[in-house]
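ARCHIVE CARD
Drawer: 12
Card no.: 0347
Subject: one protein chain, sequence and derived structure
Cross-reference: see card 0346
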Amino acid sequence: MAHQDPAPSLDVLREIEQRILWLAVRIVDHANRERPTQGGVKVGGHQASSASMVSIMTALWFGHLATDDKVAVKPHASPVFHAIKYLTGELDASWLTRLRELGGLQAYPSRTKDPDVADYSTGSVGLGAVAPLFDAAVHRYLRAHTELDTDPRFIALLGDAELDEGNVWEAIADPALAGLGNVMLVVDLNRQSLDRIVPGIRVRQLEEFFHNAGWHVAQAKYGRRLTGAFARPGGEALRAHIDDMPNERYQSTFRLAGVELRTAFCEGADAAVVDLLDEVPDDALAPLVHDLGGHDLGVLLDTYRACDAERERPSVVFAYTIKGWQLPNQGDPLNHAALLSGDQIDELRTTVGLRAEDEWERFADDSAAAEMCRSVGGEINNPAPEPRPLLSVPTELGGAGAKRTQSTQEAFGRLLVRAGDHPEIADRLVTTSPDVSVSTNLGGWINKRGVFSPVETPDYGDDSAMLRWRPGPTGQHIELGISEMNLFLLLGQLGLSFDHHDELLLPIGTVYDPFVLRGLDALIYGIYNASRFIVVGTPSGVTLAPEGGAHQSTVTASVGMELPGITFAEPAFARTLDWYLCDALAELCRPDGTSTYLRLTTRPVDQTPLAELVEARGEDAVRSDALAGGYVLREPPQGRPAEVLLAGSGAVVPELLAAAERLGEEELPAAVVVLSSADRLHAGWVGELRRRGADRHHRPTTPHVETLLGVGVERAPIVTVHDAASHALSWLGSVRGQPVVPIGVDEFGQSGTVEDLYGLFGLLPDQIVNAALVATGR
């Protein structure tokens, strides 16, 4: 588990440290001063934030990491990471001058867009900071369920201001993440956020928070010069003087030296401190009183190894650093986005022993530094990814339509139990929920497959109970506390199990649909990382009538459609859900697959209409249309073309059918178009338009949505009906230039019956009929 060189030469490490500092600063400098810009927009970068991380990352990469270890890098330290990867041979020199350029190095580490980032994207503040914690939980699960025998450490490098993010504390407090002794968080404690110096009392509070959550808390506070001084007469007084000094005052001394520093630093100090420092020459004073542990490579290595010894609990290291370390603006409260001038860059280049003509070069091949870089690169640089295993996923689990009247949420529970009988996928399935497993119909699955715990846990429940909650190492459901952020962060790492650990899992998470938005940042983080998972949002919409507006979702359908990397679907019938669930599982295996978001309801729906359609058209044809995004459920009788189209998704389909029947009685032929995935319909349409615009030789194809909307007369008006915000479907009129009357939920709901709420928002059959009459001018 330890690095192959347990005691690297500190002199060689310091040489590498200085080269990394130079490269990180120069990468940002080149992007801003030497690259042509358009519109006068600053390229940006974070030289000061990078500088504070140089020692932490040098010690970690060149003195601690092993082959299987995973690291999340502080977003603003991405230039340091790329400099390291260049020195270890993973990154070609041509990338160093392409920071924040289209197709070049990203502003923040991105596992999907950077050439050298394989572990975690960071940049959504606080999310990357805890991603390794969730990944460690995934690894623990895999160790219990597979023959995986790797023993990686999971490390997060984060800024102290990232600890202001609430999601960090939600993760640290969750019992499902307890006891992960292979996790280490290293906090870059430079005591500066974007706009201010962080008060000193904050650090003590943070340490207490971690300690109370069961974490091992370590400090890399002082370097060896200072600790040596503390052992001399007056040393304890010197320690107390620094410890008690407000952060703001201590920071202000970083820009001082010599007599000026001595005067400012010793103001109000005990006489013993003054006597001790009188023995220190002026030119040695700053290196002594500014000697923080976060810039002492030996202290850092000792601290990392002490964390390794804590095998029963995770560790956090508070590494005290200087923002802008060794740069002219070190410690300046306004240095966050500041850039060094050309003269300052020239001076720094000279200081680290380089010339302009060799400033981008690696170390000489025969040097000790080059040998260490080669050794580290050979051990920890990213190997080429393996192809994902293609599982034999069924196209249908079966039995979904056996019950004539049922909700999609109810059907989901039954289908998942059936999936547990499929030999190719059963053992790879893993479910999770934020304390809503029973109310989202996971009870049958839990009874069948059990709840995961790293150790056997006594169950004091009644053996005759409907739900058997017996946590143990073989369980395949991970229960979280009430935190949607944790749900999506865990799903994101479960969905990367093959990328990180060469073991493919099929993760499914359930959550109350309105609370998808509580975890939206973490959901976006997961799909930005190209993670593959299935999220089931249920129950949804005002169909959950008695629960009131706080539990009724309205905009989730729109959000699902707008997010890239995830397919949104809202099946109306159990059998359609069966097809989509199987398709979603298959997507988890495909090389270019996506995640899937299923929006389900608790409203029982008569399954007969779909069964009759399958019997009339054949299962393959209906399934193909449904998976393409939609199908025509009802055409006008006697072959008449529809004069109005009723299009909708999910639980309101019975209202569409009833409205079409009544319109027929009014001699207004209507067709019912069911949109099983408005997302796929929209993507297919827009994709075709883009191909036509990009290539005038492109042979046009007809998007599936055009075929669906062509069931009526030319420019037949459309009435869209959705238990969600009306705009989610109102785009349909743009496809063929048809008038649209959108019906949906555009206000917050309230408690009542389904009929009450449907009436309030215009979703009842008679109201749909009236909308159709208006649309057709009747």
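Annotation on reverse: The chain has a mean pLDDT of 93. The CA atoms of residues 145 and 474 lie 6 Å apart.
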